[in-house]
Amino acid sequence: MAGGLFHMAHPAITLSGIAGNIISFLVFLAPVTTFLQVYRKKSTGGFSSVPYVVALFSSVLWIFYALVKTNSRPLLTINAFGCGVEAAYIVFYLAYAPRKAKLRTAAYFLVLDVAAFALIVGVTLFAVPKHLQVKFLGSVCLAFSMAVFVAPLSIIVKVVKTKSVEFLPISLSFCLTLSAVAWFCYGLFTKDPFVMYPNVGGFFFSCVQMGLYFWYRKPRNANAAVLPTTSDGAAAAAPVQVQGQVIELPVNTIAILSVSPIPIVGVHKIEVVDSQNKDAAAAAEACRMAAANPDGPPPQVIEIVPAAL
């Protein structure tokens, strides 16, 4: 038997399969915070649907592989769960996305999750001999998985260029590393190279991301803050001093403040105004934040005032 989920005649296979399912379960649920933000704002903002469409394609592809191969219940169970979760993400995205984003998402879904998958199913069942179907389909899964694992290269290049880990979620990288280890072990114990080899690449790229995070991570300083700012015709602002809850910046500066460990989850843009408009702007921002999260704690107000010239 190659992969019974709870068959203790093969404890190594069982334990690695269960570990892979648990960790992948957490990875699949990682975008929940993003969609909670979408629900509160009633808008998808600048979020892209591509990761969810690709993840759905990956899940249905591995389900088909598990069915053709047989005796691969850990692969079947976690990807069935992932298929349902990713489909729910896409439906939720379509509910709040603007019209152009909806059309793009529908096009991605039809091309990748319907047409491409149907083509792979048709070729596997009708054009490939029975004894080669597992090998052919496994090769397709391997190639696609490697392409997905190589995708973070764009993030790695951005981190190196900017020397900033703002867009590098360390918790997700850590979970992906553990997931790669668990599924590599499962592929090793079941002698399945199509599961084993892609996770070598996944482990490598996840470790590179974590290494870059700790290399470029800037320690927090209680007395100083560096805010990414822009201003009309002005040079980038230098590090600013924080005294209590007051941050001093030049008038008309735009301060971009991340409100989550994963920057794409939510960003607040605050414009520094002069003293005459300060109270009205602060009140309006506090009201907006309270309306966006009525059940949460009251928003923390940090005063940002023009710096003395």
TrEMBL record:
Keywords: Cell membrane, Membrane, Repeat, Sugar transport, Transmembrane, Transmembrane helix, Transport. InterPro entries: SWEET (IPR047664), SWEET_rpt (IPR004316). The keyword Oxidoreductase does not apply. It is a multi-pass membrane protein. Its main location: membrane. It is found in: Cell membrane. Gene3D superfamilies: 1.20.1280.290. GO terms for cellular component: plasma membrane. The chain crosses the membrane at residues 12-38, 50-68, 74-96, 108-128, 134-155, 167-189, 195-216. It comes from the Eukaryota. Belongs to the SWEET sugar transporter family. Mediates both low-affinity uptake and efflux of sugar across the membrane. This is Bidirectional sugar transporter SWEET. It comes from Urochloa decumbens.
